[in-house]
Design a protein that fits this description.
Order of helices and strands: EHEHEHEHEHEH
Strand content: 15-25%
Helix content: 25-40%
Shape: globular
CATH superfamily: HAD superfamily/HAD-like
Largest sheet: 6 strands, parallel
Number of domains: 1
Structural class: alpha/beta
Distance between the termini: 24 Å
CATH topology: Rossmann fold
Strand order of the largest sheet: 1-6-5-2-3-4
Number of strands: 6
Radius of gyration: 14 Å
Length: 165
């Protein structure tokens, strides 16, 4: 199924180096908004900087792959000290291809991490990369009508939380 996640966690912070190593995942293609912080927030969510540091120490490569523009993505990625791809055009494969070239890790050892079924998980499945769904940090504000609408139509596809460590 194109909208299926391989794994699901309540938060990106719940993904451990041990879990990734157990599944032979050496690199993460990370969504930005509502995965690493709330929409339009220039500051990483609580615990994200520490989580990124643990991933780095564990030898996990990371690239932010966002559909957003450089003025949004670059300063945020710089705060975390990780590479980024802007205007990734998810669910299409362009951004994932560019990120894979940056990481120099085969697609078979990468995973896409994100909070949206129709961009992040669909993109992972179209590219045949493992998908790690994380529940959004918060529900979008009322002014983000399109995203709120997508959340409603995503409901039948939402995965159950992964039980293994």
């Amino acid at each position: 199924m194109l909208f299926k996640a391989d794994f699901a966690f309540g938060s990106v912070r719940d993904i451990s180096v041990a879990f990734l190593k157990k599944h032979n995942i050496k690199g993460l293609l990370l969504d930005l908004d509502n995965t690493l912080t709330t929409h339009d927030n220039p500051v990483p969510a609580h615990g994200i900087k520490e989580w990124v540091d643990k991933m780095k120490k564990g030898g996990i490569g990371m690239v932010i792959v966002s559909n957003n523009h450089p003025p949004r993505v670059k300063p945020f990625a710089d705060k975390l000290g990780i590479d980024y791809i802007c205007e990734g055009k998810k669910p299409l494969s362009n951004g994932f291809n560019r990120a894979q070239r940056l990481l120099k890790i085969p697609f078979s050892k990468l995973a896409v991490v994100g909070d949206q079924i129709f961009t992040d998980m669909l993109g992972a499945n179209l590219k045949r990369i493992r998908g790690i769904f994380v529940y959004p940090i918060q529900l979008e504000d009322k002014d983000k009508r399109f995203l709120r609408f997508k959340r409603i139509i995503e409901k039948p596809f939402l995965p159950k939380l992964t039980k293994e460590i």
